[in-house]
Amino acid sequence: MTLDSKIPSGLLQDKWTSHKFNNKLVNPSNRRKYKIIVVGTGLAGASSAASLAEMGYQVESFCFQDSARRAHSIAAQGGINAAKNYPNDGDSVRRLFYDTIKGGDFRSREANVYRLAEVSNNIIDQCVAQGVPFAREYSGYLDNRSFGGAQVSRTFYARGQTGQQLLLGAYQALMKEVAKNNVFLHPRTEMLDLVVIDGIARGIVVRNLLSGKIESYSADAVVLATGGYGNVFYLSTNAKGCNVTATWRAHKKGAFFANPCYTQIHPTCIPLHGNYQSKLTLMSESLRNDGRVWVPKKIKDTRLPNEIPLQERDYFLERKYPAFGNLVPRDIASRNAKEQCDTHHGVGDTGMAVYLDLKESIAQLGKQVIKDRYGNLLDMYAKITGEDPYQTPMMIYPAAHYTMGGLWVDYNLMSNLPGLFVIGEANFSDHGANRLGASALMQGLADGYFVLPYTMANYLAGVKPAGEEIIHRSEFKDAEIQVSDKIKRLLSVKGKTTVDEFHRELGHLLWNKCGMARNEKGLKEALNKIPEIRERFWKDVCVLGSNDDFNQALERAGRVADFLEFSELLCFDALHRQESCGGHFREEFQTPEGEALRRDDLFSYVAAWQFNSLGQSPTLHKEELKFEETHLAQRNYK
Length: 638
Known about the structure:
- By secondary structure, the chain is of the alpha/beta class.
- Among the domains are: 266-400, Flavocytochrome C3, Chain A, domain 1 (Alpha-Beta Complex), CATH 3.90.700; 473-612, Fumarate reductase/succinate dehydrogenase flavoprotein-like, C-terminal domain (Methane Monooxygenase Hydroxylase, Chain G, domain 1, Up-down Bundle).
- It has helices at residues 15-22, 43-55, 93-103, 110-130, 162-179, 245-252, 287-290, 316-320, 330-342, 359-365, 367-385, 440-460, 474-493, 499-514, 520-540, 552-576, 600-603; strands spanning 35-39, 58-62, 80-81, 155-156, 183-186, 189-197, 200-208, 214-218, 221-224, 257-258, 263-269, 292-296, 313-314, 354-357, 394-403, 406-407, 420-422, 497-498, 541-542, 605-610, 619-624.
- The strands form six sheets. It has a five-stranded parallel β-sheet.
- Helix 10 (359-365) runs antiparallel to helix 11 (367-385).
- The longest helix has 25 residues, at 552-576.
- The chain is globular and about 75 Å long.
- The relative contact order is 0.16.
């Protein structure tokens, strides 16, 4: 099968404008005839549901949280990028485009990334109009700070809670449409399958998490905005509920999964402090603006950080990357922190941490300025660790955070299955092999507010409204039976091992074999081990309770069962991609300086995988990447 990305012809800077003009439209009076399902209420899901409803479509919105405002976008901290160039430091749409292409290690589509940079300024205007309380300078202009992978200040922020404030803006837009009966909201409802009729996505099967009831909903188009799969590693910065279920089950129904091996390890997290810890805590990358990262030059140095004089400290990022210093991209910062710990320069009781020191910035700017910028983050750090980050350097270590891979989509954000659109972190489209900080919020809102409303109309203009009678098709009943059978199977095992024990075992395996660094031997070991863990899961998992009421153990079991299937594809893709790029670092492919070594002649493509069956290798479909505006080059942040 040939993957058609549907990238418009013409000059890069004209593609989106001409595409919007050439798109078909749906007459306002006809929009009420079309129903659209949106799964997920994070930034991408809430913004798209609100936008589509305000345009006049019938929208049904689903989330498994008790409130739409509890989506995981709320956890984003540091900021959102846009090319406003308020600091007058040389930024532009083209520079944001190039930084994003380069930051993704030249493994993303030029057209998508340019569009993202192009609409970024509209996002800020939209959010300001909604009342999002961005930080401001004394003059009244919105303030900006720097983030990794850029030499300009383009990141708009609201202290360390930018995601929360942006989500509240999108949430109020969504709830306005709910109040007007343009959106029907289904909280505490989890999507468990995609319904495909004659090759077209026509609806979903869900479980009511309070009653256990299995129900079907039909639509003329389905939008997945369900986030990423970072929790496959068990320990990550993601909320415990984040999962791969919606995208994985859509994949099993025919949607291609692209670049699953592109997983991002965030360099600035609170280190692991116990064997039974359930998640890790993010400390925003924005802290690297005012914090210097260092380790003792002496190996296994047990002195307290304030006892180590300046000349005995190694500011390793500044030493190795003088042009960017502490603001190198996340993948580079993470690997270098790991290298310091692997060579016994790590700090803390475990030796698996490096210092992030705010002392110089506090001395220069004053404690109050630092508190205004990062106060809630530093309070969180103090509460978790018992140490005062204003007085003592913070300890940080990389952790699984974001996933650049996801369901394959074309330029219109539609998957290879007609009628199935995928937006935000759930798709693969904009970040290549590594996401720059503050770009996730940008992509989610760009997709929801400024891209999908145009491309959805183009699709629906060529589709006859399905009508309510489609819900009676046998495909819906068959999907409900499959979902019910899987739930019954989980409850019938009655084993002795908890779901979390299996998840922890899988996550530990993946972190060691397919984490910050991968190699052929380790990946093959993981591919041999995963089916064995999965087999034991279905023989010995303990899921208490029933399907007739609220049962979080059952919810987790279904999600972990999907992780046990998806993880095989993750490792398979990592083994297949015999190069290093961005967050995918194969130890066999690195430069003499230890940097990622791309193989553009062999792997300059999107790897989109087609599901066949468990135990059978997936089928690879390639989308060749063309670089017409950027020159392919080895990344250099020195």
